[in-house]
Amino acid sequence: MLDSEVGKVTEVKLVCDLLNGLDFPENRAHKDYSKAREIADFITKYFGPVTHAVNTENDFSGRGDLTIITHGQSIDIELKMLQTSSAARGTLANTSQNILSVLGLVNSGLGWSDWRLQNNYQNSILGYLNQNQYTDSELLPLSRLHSPPLQKIVDTKARALRGRVYDFAKVHNLKTGSMSNLITTIKASYSSYLDSSTAQSVDTIDKIINLAHADLTGYLADCQVKSFTPGRFNKFAALLKCGFHTLPLLISKVELGFNEILPLSANYYVIFYYPKQPDFNKRFRVDGPQEIATWVNDCPNFTPVIDGESIWLKCAGVNQLHLKFHWRNIFFGIATPSVEIFDLTK
């Protein structure tokens, strides 16, 4: 999916408006208008005249970012705008933390959320957070709620600690991209500059990150012991390539036979756009039904392999898909655990 900002005009909306013949002045002022224009022109050239386009980037009941009607046919399109070379494919899907259990990819396996519940993970995190003192302003989000849920308490206190560490990083011109790297840098080279409150914040975040990594390693080790079901992984991978990325969509199709999944690639296209590619003729690449069906046919048997905190799907010894378990918000170990999937197809 293209990058988007909640509550603002997204690149997908710009493309849809243009395909629908709508060229608003406010759209032309958007920083990504020229890129959207380029994408819309390519879609029209590739598929032919578009009768109607619908923005589906936030509709998780279907495939892709937009649906177009052309020559009386409905086509689902996934758009990927990539800032790297023309070899990159970006993220294939962000999906549920519990895919291994819900989709039966592990024999009698637990979901990652159930694993953490079994190990009292959230209360352990809260125990670390409660070792710090918080100001009234930092806890303001909690004061507005009657009996706030445990996750809200964890999120609020973790954000407060993150804010203190980010303030320290700003003063010392440190990068804040990876919290783990930032904490390592501060502990290694800036400990003498820390006041007691920030020092405790750094120590707490470090403990939480370490606990989160230990939890994830333990979860995947448990899955390894219970063993994977390769046949289910084969169908899972095929469905992903056919555009079924959310858990409800995957559940609705995973019981199909492999040969029944193959035709699902019909009318589904992935358009890769590389705006930094200087050669205009190389700015677009398309995976359509034929390319997707060929990939599914050529890779019918996957071997799932755990490496660190990831699962790799290999075909004939070659990595094809990468399942990365991570935490998407605040910092690692706090909020929005999920599985990010990368397509390594050459």
Provide keyphrases for this structure.
346 residues; alpha+beta; five-stranded mixed sheet; five-stranded antiparallel sheet; 14 helices; globular; disordered N terminus
Description:
This protein has 346 residues and is an alpha+beta fold. It is 43% helix and 19% strand. The chain has a domain at 118-226. The longest helix has 31 residues, at 196-226. The strands form two sheets. It has a five-stranded mixed β-sheet. A five-stranded antiparallel β-sheet has the order 4-10-9-8-7, with helices on one face. Helix 6 (121-129) packs across helix 8 (150-171), helix 6 (121-129) runs antiparallel to helix 10 (196-226) and helix 9 crosses helix 10 (196-226).
Mean pLDDT: 92
Rg value: 23 Å
Please tally the β strands and state the result. 10
- Residue share in β-strands: 15-25%
What class, by secondary structure content? alpha+beta
In sequence order, what are the helices and strands, one letter per element? Answer: HHHEEEEHHHHHHHHHHEEHEEEE
- 3D shape: globular
Major beta sheet, specifics? 5 strands, mixed
N- and C-termini, Cα separation: 20 Å
Q: Helical residue percent?
A: 40-55%
Contiguous low-pLDDT stretches (5 residues minimum) are 1-7
Could you give the order of strands across the largest sheet?
1-2-3-5-6
Q: Helical element count?
A: 14
